[in-house]
Amino acid sequence: MSKPKLKLDFCDFNGVDKLNNPFTRLLSQRYEIEISDRPDLLIFQEGGHMNRLYTCKKLFWTGESVLPDWDRTDYAMTCHYLDDARHLRMPFYVWGSAAPAEDLVRRDDEDIAALMRSKTRFCSFLVTNSNRRRTGPRIDFFEKLTAHRQVDSGGPYRNNIGRVIPRGGEFKREFNAPCKFHLCWENKSLPGYTTEKLVDAMWARCIPIYWGSPRVAEEFNPKSFLDRSQFASDEAMIERILEIDADNAQWEAMLREPCFNDNTPNQYYSDSYALDFLQRVIDDPAPPVSRRRKFFRLGRWKLAKRQHFY
To answer: Fucosyltransferase C-terminal domain: from which residue to which, for each copy (predicted)?
Structure first.
């Protein structure tokens, strides 16, 4: 039986392969996908204003902490916990990390002794954003930890290894793999805002040093990482890090802990979780919000122009 055709387009992304991305890979299970500048569904991000030129059904998706603007979109997928039928919570770590869910499931036959022997460095750090106003807690903690031990910074910010690690999951995994710990602090602390940083550390079999979503333990086993929210101060957390670093028994115990609660990937990794929502978006017969508006603010329209798909 042939699949129904679905015309898609993407805009306002900071780089996207329109033919090969999480949305097309999911939707192609149920639809024949055609990329078109006259789409049935537009998927857009917060990076521009081209979405304003489309009058079709729109889906806003972001990996950042941005809230949807319901005057501009019909549906949304973000990291937020919103009680709204138009919204699906989709944490960025699912699609933002190259780590397959099955690689995060702990095996009983894993050679922990060999893993421990492979860890020849203390801690890694990969950061681009150096804006202290936006990321002050992360910068402060990095500086405090480096006062005790060498933290290998492989990103553009405070690089101390002589080269910048290229973007891409495998490059990050290779850089992190020899390290006992990985410093993975988010840009901000917000319920639900967990990006790829935590998962990338787990994939490399580092112990994550985490700061971000206060609800992270609902999705990952809190015994497998160190969560800043569970410590009274930066200094108390650093004391605990150094204690684990000096005690192989405690370090091994943490390495043996599964990443996920019950060693089972959480619901967000299930294809059907997002796909069922997307099908509901597509099947919704309501007129798109862009056709229901009776007036438009013209100030930003001049910034937008049609984006071709080729």
So the answer is: 117-252
